[in-house]
Amino acid sequence: MLSINAAPFRKGAPLAAELPQDPFSGTSLTLHSEALNRPAPSEADTPGRRAALEKDPTLGTKRAFKTALKPQPRRNGPMLRPQWSLYDLLPELARTYRVDFVADSYWSSAPALGLGSLPQEPTALYALLDDAAGSHHRWDRVPTKWVGGSLIRLRSRTWFLDRPREIPLRYVRRWREEMARRGSVSLEAYLELVTTLTDTQMENLSRLVAAGELPEDLYGGDLCREMLRLYASLLPAQQETLRHGGIIRVSQLTPGQQGQFVAALKRHGRMGLSPAAMTPDQLDVAGLALKQVPLIRTIDRTRGVVVSDEPAAPAGPQPPKPVPGSDTVDRIPVTQLLFLLARGEERLGGVGLIATPFR
After folding, report:
1. Looking at the DSSP assignment, which residues form a beta bridge with residue 152?
2. Which of 168, 295, 315, 347 has a CA-to-CA distance to 38 between 20 and 30 Å?
3. Low-confidence ranges of the chain (pLDDT < 50)
4. Does residue 245 sit in the same domain as residue 216?
5. Which helix (H) or strand (E) holds 201?
6. In the Cβ-directed half-sphere of 13, how many Cα atoms lie within 13 Å?
7. How much is the pLDDT for 4?
8. Looking at the domain assignment, is residue 295 inside a domain?
9. What are phi and psi for residue 56, nearest 5 degrees?
């Protein structure tokens, strides 16, 4: 199955005119493909299977199921109808049908029930589980002496693909908390992200951002993956040189670091120099630079969303700027970090991200 999701990076507010090839202007088009597993013939919903399940005292007994939980909007598809995550409903299903559940839980694979799937009339548990599991999950009853045979197991059919790309919950919580507390995430958080997660996990990052599980700023972590890994591998003195506007020549990098630099060029052809042009002569004049662009971020506290990122006012006394709805709006300084390709003293194209200001 191939799905396509186009998401705007910005909210329409202008950025500073001097930003070179700003990676956050315009839109991003993401292509994602995954295996779509159809149930095996032995698992097909045959009349014989249904008849056996209807006679089962646990799975076939019809009960009225109601929930106070509200269906959640599908953020990666605004035109799609809201739905319930089956994982959120499991405690109430367990109480209603007097069973226990054990299930795996992956960001990239979560069974759900749509608006029309919760029945108004008493319904058998097997019918609800069949509807939620669909073609991506399977469920069965696990014989066990501890819970009288009422343990229901729910598992992703693609768990062997889901597990390697899973992003640990502890990191997701940490990045959410930092975004809520500081208005963005720090460069250190980005460095932790790219040096801790594998490329397979990084490929899952955009999906979590699109689904609203992670702040949109983390799109920049994936965009600048190679440059961030290169920055993390530099000596502290070299990092300090970049922070103060200096240039690190490619000829000063180790062979491994040069490979990361070339990998960034291959991924972002708009940086101004193709990998094929990286001859030994070019290594003497090419380099890496870091540009910091101060911005003021406006956050709507009532919705917890970023409204705009605007160029910060020049240093010096400025007349106070009225902020509409200032009692519910925060204006927080953030910084756009642009990793730029340098040729001689000239700064060419680059890739960037939004982070909290350096301390």
Report:
1. 101, 141
2. 168
3. 9-10, 13-28, 40-42, 316-320, 322
4. yes
5. helix 199-210
6. 13
7. 58
8. yes
9. -70, 125
**Single residue among 157, 185, 211 that ends a domain in this structure:** 157
List all residues 6 or more positions away from 146 whose beta carbon is below 8 Å from its beta carbon.
none
Tell me how far apart the alpha carbons of residues 47 and 58 are, in angstroms, rounded to a whole number.
19
Three-state secondary-structure class, residue 107: coil
Cα–Cα distance list, 33 to 1, 2, 202 (Å): 6, 4, 15
Tokens of 108: 């990239």
Q: What is the pLDDT of residue 164?
A: 92
Please report, for the domain that includes residue 66, its CATH number.
Answer: 3.55.50
Same domain, 286 and 330: yes
**Which domain-ending residue is among 127, 157, 187?**
157
State pLDDT tens for residues 172-190. Answer: 999 989 888 888 889 999 9
Q: What are the residues whose beta carbons fall under 8 Å from the beta carbon of 216, sequence distance 6 or more?
A: 9, 209, 306
Number of domains in the chain: 2
What is the span of the domain harbouring residue 206? Answer: 164-355
Query: How far lies 192's CA from each of 106, 173, 224, 246, in Å?
Result: 21, 14, 13, 24
Cα 227 → chain centroid? 19
Domain shared by 45 and 97, yes or no: yes
